[in-house]
Amino acid sequence: MTTEQAPPRAVPRNEVALAELFARLSREMGALETESLRVESVLAGFLDGQRPDGDRAAQESASIQTLDRLVQTLSELRCFLDHLAGTAPAISLDLHNATSGIRLGRLSDMLAGRETDVPAADGAVDFF
Fold it and tell me: What gap in Å lies between CA 102 and CA 29, rounded to an integer?
């Protein structure tokens, strides 16, 4: 005897599957990471005393102006996620595997619900 499976439920246009939402957020975070690395490189050059000229100076100036967009995007993502947290249905996820690949211990602990009392960075900047 074969059992017929019901067709997958169509997701209304104003809803999104969690996997798709997570993929979208991942792509956006990747873009922010790329832009941040570009800005970090420019700032490291300035701190090392490099003074670009001509076209390179214009490109680096544009990279630094990207900081404003980065801050605005992170702020909007925070608001979006805060809203989702307040309206999300009661669904649980196993975060063990997802957090096991995170190299920043404090971030991994926070995401897994193991918040630490480690204070935030004091503003010191490390360029690698």
Answer: 14
Q: What percent of the chain clears pLDDT 70, i.e. is strictly above it?
A: 69
The pTM score is 0.63
pLDDT for the residue numbered 89: 86
State the Cα–Cα distance between residues 94 and 74, nearest whole angstrom.
Answer: 25
Residue 76's nearest CA partner among 29, 109, 44, 108 is 29
Domain boundaries, the chain: 18-89
CA-to-CA distance for 81 and 112, rounded, in angstroms?
16
Nearest residue to 114 (alpha-carbon basis) of 95, 97, 88: 95
How far is Cα 127 from Cα 111, in angstroms, rounded to an integer? 25
Residue 45: exposure state from Cβ atoms within 10 A (0-12, 13-18, ≥19):
middle
Please give the single-letter amino acid code of residue 54: G
> In Å, what is the CA distance from 35 to each residue of 32, 57, 74, 80, 110?
5, 17, 12, 21, 25
